[in-house]
Amino acid sequence: MIRAEARAHLWRWREVLLGAAIIGFGLWIAAPGGYVLVPLGLAVASLGLGFVVLGLRRLRFVGGGFGPGVVTVDEGEVSYMGPQVGGFISLSDLAELRLITLRGKRMWRLKQTDGQAILVPLDAAGADALFDAFSQLPGLSSASLVAAIDAKAPVIGGNVVAVQSAFDRVVWMRPGAGVLRR
């Protein structure tokens, strides 16, 4: 009954639409007024607002899903299987999360505590699951993830200018992972 493209578009916006429906329900509860219904309705509406904000952040994080490879997140382990390379990394062993641009493609660089690293394209299939996985890292917020993705390299005269913050940006580093001094 609904075209596949329209269904995919609605599915992509599902969290925002759910949040808007919860806001509407909360305002409907608060509409009659009173000492009980107004605070209850406003609490429900604020919960819906939280869903809308999180849904909008997730929309900005999600790529097209048309890049090379497939990403899966299962029980704290991120796996990436690409056409030529791939690998697995446990979030508990993750030491550094970096957003890099390599040959014009933006990628996550996940580095383990033992120095091994994997590169995961932002637009790989299933890369949207990384938003929830990365949000579980201690000290990393969803707002900083979205801010890292939104950073663009400046363009002067049609050429992309190499700026450290735009091409190679450390998004998160495990606390206490620095050099120890005696």
Overview of the structural elements:
- The protein is of the alpha+beta class and 182 residues long.
- The protein folds into two domains: 4-61; 67-173, PH-domain like, CATH 2.30.29.
- Helix content is 38%, strand content 29%.
- It has six helices and ten strands, in the order αααβββββββααββαβ.
- The strands form three sheets. The protein has a four-stranded mixed β-sheet with strand order 3-2-1-7, with no helix packed on it. The protein has a four-stranded antiparallel β-sheet with strand order 6-5-4-10. A two-stranded antiparallel ribbon has the order 8-9.
- It is elongated.
- 16% of the residues are buried.
- Mean pLDDT is 84; it is low at 159-166.
The tally of domains stands at 2
Strand order of the largest sheet: 3-2-1-7
The ordered string of helix (H) and strand (E) elements is HHHEEEEEEEHHEEHE
CATH class of the largest domain: Mainly Beta
Overall morphology = elongated
Indicate the radius of gyration in whole angstroms. 20 Å
**CATH architecture tag of the largest domain:** Roll
Question: Can you count the helices?
Answer: 6
Arithmetic mean pLDDT: 84
Low-confidence residue ranges: 159-166
Share of helix, binned: 25-40%
The largest sheet, given as strand count, sense and whether it forms a barrel, is:
4 strands, mixed
Could you tell me the CATH topology label of the largest domain.
Answer: PH-domain like
The end-to-end span amounts to 69 Å
Give the number of DSSP strands. 10
Percentage of β-strand residues: 25-35%
SSE class: alpha+beta
